[in-house]
Design a protein that fits this description.
There is one protein chain. By secondary structure, this protein is an alpha+beta fold. Helix content is 27%, strand content 25%. It has helices at residues 4-12, 24-33, 120-124, 161-165, 168-176, 197-206, 211-214, 216-220, 255-261, 266-275, 278-285, 346-360, 365-381, 426-440, and strands at 15-17, 39-44, 53-59, 62-68, 74-78, 93-95, 98-100, 107-109, 114-116, 142-146, 149-153, 183-193, 236-240, 243-249, 289-296, 300-305, 318-328, 331-341, 390-392, 418-421. It has an eight-stranded antiparallel beta sheet, sandwiched between helices. Strands 5-4-3-6 form a four-stranded antiparallel beta sheet, with no helix packed on it. Strand 8 (107-109) and strand 9 form a beta hairpin.
């Protein structure tokens, strides 16, 4: 990697060193300073609705059992036995009151507590040799939820999740709170692409510029009512808090007419009117903007679109949540969930799922278009010439930093943050600025835990602190 300070300075002025999309040293620094600090999405409460339900999810190399215990509380525990480090749970999802390590038979309740240790007296002399009481699987240092979305942070000193989301929570509600019951998820579908994780996150955050070129064929075959892909420039991009996204401009009409235009039935519209704030309703009903794709830093993206699902002019909206899970500097595992209002009619749920699969499933038309670009970009970024090139990510700015188009006023756009109509790379710059801030800031090494000693519970926030920085 070139000198870090120079790389980050270039990023902050909108000139992107091309090699950051395929650089091993950059990726190692991301693991140490970004993914060990940010809030990471690991699932949704609808995936573990009953006591004993669990899913196993990764934060890079770290595997976590995300489980609902017998009292209904949600936990995320590091999937490693306290004895010799074997994975405690080998299945990706299921229901269990206990997890039993297959190596030596240590067993744990679904709240993480160690309850079974074979030959405890014979092997250890009982509590005098190994203090079993109070021991648990290592919990994620921080766990919190928002509208049923489950997040963990590896940093014990991380800000509260709601503070981390900031004003982006305003927009997250459109995807995750269309009724008092919230959403339910189906999936995830999972696949790997030979592309750097940042590319997808940037694309979903605000790249309306690629649509007329990359996705021309999707429009030409009549998948959408709008006759031209250039229609995207009439919408706006917004950035608020730790995330941002894109919108479409809707035809003139009332709130109800505009929601019907994107395919929502009246019964769902009625619930939206009681679930969203007046400002959230105003963005659609008065300002005429409908949310589309978005990204929450660092690596979760959301999609809302409304294609045709039959040989008619009728459209069906769908929502998708996806995570760009880094594997290496040049490979990403995509986890893609279908999301839908839990109170939606069953027929709507099925047709919406069909729309999702057609567009953004593993073989979706949009998906194939996008991945072709991202793989090519990643491959090209690995070469020596890429280290000589600064990519221009200053769309929407003049040389002196003046914005080509001024931001929308509060009278034009009721949502928080900053919004611009037309093409621009405001959101990509915001996302990469946060990336640069994380990489520039060392993180203190986490505390260690001595298992079976001291008599206290196994706690990720206690132990012998090592003061080194990473």
């Amino acid at each position: 990697m070139s000198d870090l300070a120079d790389v980050l300075d270039d990023v902050r002025r909108g000139m992107i060193p091309a090699h950051i999309y395929n650089d091993r040293d950059v990726f190692e620094l991301e693991k140490k300073r970004l993914f060990s600090r940010a809030w990471m999405f690991v699932g949704h409460e609808s995936e573990i609705p009953a006591p004993g339900d669990y899913v196993v999810r990764r934060v890079l190399e770290d595997s976590f059992i995300v489980a609902r215990d017998e009292k209904g509380e949600v936990h995320a525990h590091f999937n490693m036995c306290l004895h010799r480090g074997m994975q405690v749970c080998r299945a990706e999802m299921g229901n269990a009151s206990h997890f039993r390590c297959p190596y030596h038979g240590w067993s744990y309740r679904n709240d993480g507590r160690l309850v079974g240790l074979p030959f405890h007296q014979d092997a250890y002399g009982g509590e005098a040799g190994f203090r079993r009481k109070g021991q648990t699987l290592l919990p994620a240092p921080n766990l919190d939820t928002y509208n049923g979305l489950i997040f963990v942070s590896m940093d014990p000193q991380a800000p509260a999740l709601r503070d981390y989301l900031g004003d982006f929570a305003f927009y997250l509600d459109y995807y995750t709170k269309q009724s008092p019951s919230g959403i339910e998820l189906r999936g995830p579908q999972r696949w790997r692409v030979k592309a750097n994780w940042k590319i997808g996150a940037e694309n979903f955050a605000g790249d309306m510029y690629h649509t007329p070129q990359t996705h021309t064929s999707v429009v030409e075959i009549g998948l959408f009512r709008e006759p031209k892909a250039e229609k995207r420039k009439d919408g706006c991009t917004y950035w608020a808090g730790n995330g941002g996204g894109t919108t479409y401009k809707l035809p003139a009409g009332t709130l109800q007419e505009r929601l019907r235009y994107v395919g929502y039935p009246d019964e769902m519209i009625q619930r939206m009117q009681t679930s969203w704030s007046q400002e959230q309703l105003r963005v659609i009903g008065d300002d005429g903007f409908m949310i589309s794709a978005a990204s929450l830093f660092p690596n979760i993206s959301l999609v809302h679109n409304w294609p045709k699902v039959a040989d008619t002019d009728d459209v069906l909206p769908f929502i998708s949540i996806r995570q760009w899970q880094p594997v290496s500097q040049d490979e990403t595992e995509v986890l893609s969930w279908f999301a839908v209002d839990a109170e939606a009619p069953e027929e709507f749920k099925e047709l919406s799922y069909k729309a999702y699969l057609m567009c953004f499933g593993s073989t979706g038309m949009f998906e194939q278009d996008d991945v072709e670009n991202w793989v090519s970009l990643t491959n090209t970024a690995a070469g020596s010439m890429a280290r000589r090139l600064l990519l221009n990510s200053r769309m929407g700015l003049l040389d002196d930093g003046t914005e080509v188009t001024p931001p929308l006023t509060p009278e034009q756009f009721a949502g928080p943050g900053t919004a611009h109509v037309g093409y621009g790379e405001f959101n990509q710059r915001e996302l990469l600025n946060r990336w640069a801030d994380h990489l520039a800031t060392p993180l203190a090494t986490a505390s260690t835990v001595a298992v079976g000693q001291g008599g206290g519970p196994c706690d990720a926030r206690t132990g012998t602190t090592k003061g080194a920085e990473a």
